[in-house]
Amino acid sequence: MRSHSLPDSWNLDQILDDLNAHGFAIINQAYPDQYRAQVSQECSHHMDEFREAGIQNGVVSNIRSDHILWINDQLPIAQQHIETLTLFSQSLNQAFYLGIKEVEAHFARYNLGEFYALHRDNPQQKNDRIISTVYYLHPEWQEDWGGQLRLQDKNEKWHIVNPEPNRLVIFQSDLLHEVLISKQQRLSITAWLRSGNSIWV
């Protein structure tokens, strides 16, 4: 899927308009489905390397129960998504003067009954996360399987976003959001477009 331009499915003008008006944007069929399948397979091959995201520095958090694996050069297929987001960051910087310098990302796995309670990715501007993204990897999803992203937009209106396969959700990191309880295994790449150095938590 390597390319020096954004995928054809990314309507950049619409994405920028949605981010400006609402603070979030959705891209359906973000990549060719062959890529989604390849990156999903790469994720599955490394399942035994995931760790509990609810444990930070040995302290158990009760607001989340998912499992994560940070993405680096050892995961070359997922790294292509990071490269695309890096290219996309240039357009965001030109449009909104955000000063994005880098992208950090991890695979996220929600098993049966797992969730992430209401939070902000950049609470009180305490880190350098500016834009958050979630890219859904699973091959299928039904509405009664849960796992939706519940998001409050910049106008304080609430939205429920289904984790449709090959869907990419882009939103301001300071917006309130949560992941509702999942009833099936839910796979994604969560990435943050940042204005500073990686914190790798």
Automatic annotation (TrEMBL):
Domain Fe2OG dioxygenase: 101-195
Cofactor annotation: L-ascorbate
SUPFAM superfamilies in the record: Clavaminate synthase-like
GO BP annotations, alphabetical order: cellular response to hypoxia
Alphabetical UniProt keywords: Dioxygenase, Iron, Metal-binding, Oxidoreductase, Vitamin C
GO MF term set: ferrous iron binding; L-ascorbic acid binding; peptidyl-proline dioxygenase activity
Pfam families given in the database record: 2OG-FeII_Oxy_3
Record-given protein name: Fe2OG dioxygenase domain-containing protein
